[in-house]
Design brief:
The protein has ten helices and five strands. The protein has 238 residues and is of the alpha/beta class. It folds into two domains: 142 residues, 3-Layer(aba) Sandwich (Rossmann fold), CATH 3.40.50; 82 residues, DNA polymerase, domain 1 (Orthogonal Bundle). Strands 2-1-3-4-5 form a five-stranded parallel β-sheet, with helices on both faces.
């Protein structure tokens, strides 16, 4: 399915769509666990558990009544809870190292080329639950050529809240229907479409190590679909 009117800008989910969080974090987790004498713990299972707590937390955040806080704080809270459940104690420095690992994620092989091609035609912004400092650090680490870093901190809301999408469009002085969310997650795109945005799905079958994505119940035909950001660039005439 192709949108009838091309968007005026592209907004990108980042974790999983543009960067490979699982491989990046598991490598760091493995280093930390080995250093503290626990190489027996599966670093990927640790990473998957940490990420699942994030997914549940974002889904339910709007119902808690809690005011907006930066993602570093939530990542730390979720890490601390995971360590309690695992009956594993880590020093403060190790916990900080793991939280800051989310600032230095590696891009998927097609991401930088695809973004640069798309940028020839469209303004590129983030629409992520990451905060500005995290996304700036990640962009510099991974070479991501954003025109602007928007999202949770600008919207003061976490996806999938409608404000997270609509305020991104508002910041660009365009209507929601003139903005296209690019994401590897059906749940994210479902919420973006409900908020009035166009949608582009990027297949990332290895995001969860080949396991089924946790949001397949939201799958539907999207305005654009591609197997990579370079393929999306081709489909969008870039």
């Amino acid at each position: 399915m192709t949108a009838n009117t091309p968007p005026k800008a592209l907004a990108f989910d980042v974790f999983g769509t543009v960067v490979d969080w699982r491989t990046s974090i598991a490598a760091l987790v493995g280093q930390v666990l080995s250093a503290v004498g626990r190489p027996d713990i599966d670093a990927f299972a640790f990473t998957d558990d940490w990420r699942m707590r994030y997914l549940i937390g974002m889904r339910d955040f709007g119902q808690t009544g809690r005011g907006f806080v930066k993602l570093d704080i939530l990542h730390r809270e979720m890490l601390d809870a995971l360590l309690v459940d695992m009956q594993l104690d880590l020093a403060e420095a190790d916990r900080h190292t793991l939280v800051m690992g989310w600032h230095r994620l590696e891009p998927w092989p097609d991401s930088v080329e695809g973004l640069n091609r798309l940028k020839r035609r469209f303004p590129l912004v983030t629409c992520s639950n990451g905060h500005i400092a995290l996304l700036v650090n990640m962009a510099r680490h991974a070479g991501l050529p954003w025109d602007a870093i928007l999202g949770a901190e600008v919207a003061q809301a976490y996806k999938p809240a409608p404000a997270a999408y609509q305020r991104t469009a508002q910041a660009l002085d365009i209507a929601p229907g003139e903005l296209c969310l690019v994401a590897a997650h059906h749940g994210d795109l479902f919420a973006a479409r409900a908020a009035g945005l166009q949608t582009a799905f990027i297949h990332r079958p290895l995001e969860y190590g080949g396991a089924p994505a946790p949001d397949l119940q939201f799958q539907q035909p999207w305005d654009y679909e591609a197997g990579s950001l370079t393929e999306l660039a081709e489909r969008m005439g870039c």
